[in-house]
Each structure stands twice: as structure tokens, then as C-alpha cells.
Design goal:
By secondary structure, the protein is mostly helical. The chain contains 11 helices and 4 strands. Strand 3 and strand 4 form a beta hairpin. The structure holds zinc ion (2 copies).
């Protein structure tokens, strides 16, 4: 394994690094062409392929299998009762631990690809007081499971109970198969819309100090950092599931919505741009866009599927120019605040 401190400036596992040990992927990560005018059919087709394959389809499959094989009967869920609620809690915790651990063990535990495609040149922090038990990994697992897994399950329990009692609009896939599939495809998009706005809210200073600071202690995030949040942030973060209380949908949609919110942060925070299989970059890993949010805080609040950050001037692509722009903006807003005070 490469000696990180000695090789900060040079190559680590064949990847060039800056003086802080950061690696920047080549090529600009472009926002979704869905909003381009005039439309470009080739770009659009490529984008839609990447939108679905492979991760979105994997999450859809997990949701379908969960509802088909691991879901209590609807008739049991008309009343709140510990048997099915505890079952859902255990099911969700086991799935969360299995999926996030797979990311962690492959990339950070076994260090299967060393520093190849790794954004930072550090591993999980140890001995830092800001983390529970002075251990970043333990701290991240604690907040993800104890708070994240519980609040996610709570939203799921109430939503399934509402479906079972027909309090919320139910969609029959046999009557509306096209709408069923389109809605399944749109869940990731809804998740990004909801994430951008709630994330902006969480950067409002009082909410940041009360809750979001906890997630941002992870300057060098790993898979378990994704769902490592304050309980108040989890309540906001998982609230996207409430869309199923208004929009006609099937429990598969609601389960996928919750699972995507619970599982996809492990990927988004994996710390590696790609997963290497047989020496080649094979699978898309963490989002560089969000990695930069953890590095600089005041940029890249959303994703690139709906490019709010590009529209509102808060996007950062990792370049020196983008950094200068962000710093100038920060300086200007600081001046406005101090002169108003
Ligand atoms: Zn994050
Ligand atoms: Zn943030």
C-alpha cells in the first residue's frame, strides 16, 4: 500500500494528487441535458441510459423483491402492532447493514483497489474527539442505524398502515401499468428535488447548528457517512416518502422511495469515483459533485439530474476558477452581513 504522507504531491496508485492529497476526476461532470434547449437526442438517450443503469434498476429490483417476499400481509398492517413493526425494523436494519457494509468492506475495509479513483488520500479518522468514541466509522454506524434506520422505518410503518386502511390513494398496477412504471422511474428524480430543497433548508444557520453540522463533520466521507445524520435531519431527509400520501401510488413505490433514501447515500459518499473490477474502472461510484460539498460546504447542494446548483450559481466543478467564484461570493455575502449589523 502507498505511503500517503510521503507521496502527497505525486502519484498514489497511479493517480495524480494535489498538495492536500485530493484527486480530481478528468472531464467535466455535466448537468442533465433534459433541460437543454434545443434538445439533443443523442445526449438525452445517453443520459437516460445512465439514469437507469445500473443503480436505479438495482434499487427498483430490491424494492420489488422486498414487497414480494419480505412484506407482511396488508390485512395485518391495518392496526399498529409490535409484531409486524418489529419485523419491518429488523428487516430494514439487516438490509441497511448488509448494503452499506458491502460498500465499506470492499473499498475501505479490504482496500480492494487501494487509492485508485479515491477522492482523498485518507482513510476513516481515528482519535478525533468530534466523533463518538473518537472513531469515525463507529460514530457513522451509530447515527446511521440507531437514528437513520429507526426514522426510516417509522415513515414506512405509518405509510404502510395508511395504505392498508385505504387512507391514501392506491394505484393498481394491473389497471395502470404504464403509470406504475413511469412513477417507479421518477422516484430518483423526486428524491433529488426533495433533497435539494431540504438540504438548502438544513444550511439555514439555526438548522445547521442544531442538526446538519453532524453530517458535515465528515470532511472525508465514506459509505457509512452517507446516512450519518442528526435525528432531526433524518426526520427531514426521509420526509420525501410523504409524497405517497398525496400522489396515487403502490406500496412498491413507497418502499423504493424509502430504500433509495436509505441506501443510496452509501454510494454517494463512497469516496471513490469508480469501482475497479479486474483492473478496469467498471461501476459508477460516489458523486464527485457531493464530495465537493463535503470539502467546501457552500456549493453543490443538490445533484446533477435537476441542476438547481447550476441555475442558482452554487455549482462547483472542482476547478480553481469555480473555487475563486465561490470564495468571492462568500466574501461578498460576509461584507453584506457585517455592514448590515
Ligand atoms: Zn453528504
Ligand atoms: Zn450540507
Amino acid at each position: 500500500m502507498a505511503d500517503v504522507s510521503a507521496e502527497r504531491d505525486g502519484l498514489i496508485d497511479g493517480m495524480p494528487r494535489d498538495e492536500r492529497g485530493h484527486w480530481q476526476p478528468e472531464g467535466e461532470k455535466l448537468p442533465s441535458p433534459v433541460f437543454d434547449w434545443p434538445p439533443n437526442p443523442r445526449k438525452l438517450a445517453k443520459y437516460l441510459f445512465n439514469y437507469l443503469f445500473p443503480w436505479n434498476l438495482i434499487y427498483m429490483l430490491i424494492a420489488v423483491l422486498t414487497v414480494t417476499f419480505l412484506q407482511p400481509e396488508m390485512s395485518r398492517m391495518t392496526r399498529f402492532s409490535p409484531d409486524w413493526i418489529l419485523y419491518l425494523f429488523a428487516r430494514n436494519q439487516i438490509m441497511l447493514i448488509a448494503i452499506v457494509s458491502a460498500w465499506h468492506l470492499w473499498l475501505w475495509g479490504r482496500k480492494s483497489q487501494g487509492f485508485q479513483f479515491k477522492y482523498t488520500a485518507e482513510w476513516m479518522a481515528k482519535g478525533k474527539k468530534k466523533f463518538l468514541g473518537k472513531n469515525q466509522l463507529f460514530d457513522n454506524i451509530f447515527w446511521s442505524c440507531v437514528s437513520g434506520g429507526t426514522i426510516w422505518t417509522a415513515y414506512e410503518v405509518v405509510t404502510l398502515w395508511a395504505f392498508a386502511n385505504e387512507y391514501i390513494p392506491y394505484l393498481d398496477p394491473r389497471e395502470h401499468p404504464v403509470y406504475f412504471v413511469l412513477l417507479l422511474c421518477a422516484i430518483q428524480l423526486w428524491g433529488q428535488f426533495h433533497f435539494y430543497w431540504t438540504h438548502r433548508l438544513l444550511h439555514w444557520p439555526p438548522l445547521y447548528r442544531a442538526a446538519h453540522f453532524l453530517h458535515h463533520r465528515n470532511i472525508n466521507p465514506g459509505p457509512w457517512s452517507g446516512l450519518s445524520m442528526h435525528p432531526l435531519e433524518h426526520v427531514i431527509f426521509f420526509s420525501g416518502v410523504l409524497i405517497h400520501w398525496i400522489v396515487p401510488s403502490h406500496p412498491i413505490h413507497a418502499i423504493m422511495n424509502g430504500q433509495l433514501t436509505a441506501f443510496s447515500p452509501a454510494q454517494a459518499h463512497a469516496g471513490f469515483e469508480s469501482i475497479v473490477v479486474n483492473g478496469k474502472s467498471k461501476l459508477r461510484g460516489a458523486s464527485y459533485f457531493h464530495q465537493l460539498h463535503h470539502r467546501y460546504f457552500e456549493c453543490n447542494y443538490g445533484g446533477l439530474d435537476i441542476p438547481f446548483d447550476v441555475w442558482f450559481g452554487t455549482s462547483h466543478n472542482g476547478s480553481a476558477e469555480a473555487h475563486e467564484k465561490m470564495r468571492a461570493k462568500r466574501f461578498a455575502s460576509h461584507k453584506v452581513r457585517t455592514s448590515a449589523a
